Amino acid sequence: MRRLLAAILAATPLLAPGAAPAQSLRAINTGGPQGAYHSLFCPPVAAALQQAYFTGYACTPSRGTVENIERSLATPPMIGFAQLDVFALEASRRPAEFANLVVIRQDVACEGLWMVTRNESLSNYGEVLALARRIPFILPAQGSGAAASFAFLMQGDPEGLGRVAPGNIRHLADATAVINAVATASDGAVGFFVQFADPQNANIRLMAEKNLRIIPVVSREILRSRVAEQSVYEVRTFTLGGGGIFARPRELTTACTPVAVFGGTPEAVARFGKGGTADDQRELIERVRAVPAARLLPQEDRVARLISGARRLSAQAAEEMANAADAAKRAVQSRMGN
């Protein structure tokens, strides 16, 4: 498993120190220009900073979470967006470097972990864990946020998903390719990707159009995942529909990873010596944390309603789902004679 994790992580594109955009120390690093971080979630953060008289911060495209981390490590005054689980994975690899970063917010939105298959005998994540050594998995490209999420899930569950055989993981270009491949697979393949639960999103629509089985990604190990004493995952119920392919509203429950806003610590900014003082960064962090979550939602009403309408399961309900996964795993292992 260690060799497999190393291969996945080695493929994640990292920037050399100083590779952040040279034109501004006040970048808010996001993702692709058409992606949700850049087009939906960054503008409210930039507006909140402007209203607090922290001027000049601009939404700046990137290749995603890992590049955003590298930019903030090289230039601590910069702010970045990240999948919290990928942030936690990188932090576990290099804790000394991550002592220079701080998560500012993680309470605005949550990206769903989606596991899909045509295999009608798979309906519970515990069954997937029991059969992890045998199942062929299809993931987005190495270096993607979803591939890193899968690596984090493997790392946190060595007796479950961590047993996936290296030869049983296939990487495709993106989530769309994953869904299409699973829909035509004859070997019981399971696909995995990370996506906001927007019924108008092309991948969420495609998942429904292909009539794939959706396996809730919930286990005890997932519920226990932590970074800086904060949960890396939540379990939420998302409502998809109605209209379009979702003729009737459909509720889906799965784990999700919060969208994190992070930056350099005040001490790191002070050592950097440009772009502000420790007091400036401390005040910036305090101001951003004080902004009501509703003000940081995307400005598009439809998307804002989707995000705010996702229901977080109670601790008891999430624990019941974890218990069900444990029971399903044991049942499969019993049938296999393990």
UniProtKB/TrEMBL annotation:
Q: Which domain of life is it from?
A: Bacteria
Q: Which residues form the signal peptide?
A: 1-22
Q: Which keywords does this Swiss-Prot/TrEMBL entry list?
A: Signal
For the keyword Signal, the answer is yes
Q: What is this protein called?
A: TRAP-type C4-dicarboxylate transport system, substrate-binding protein
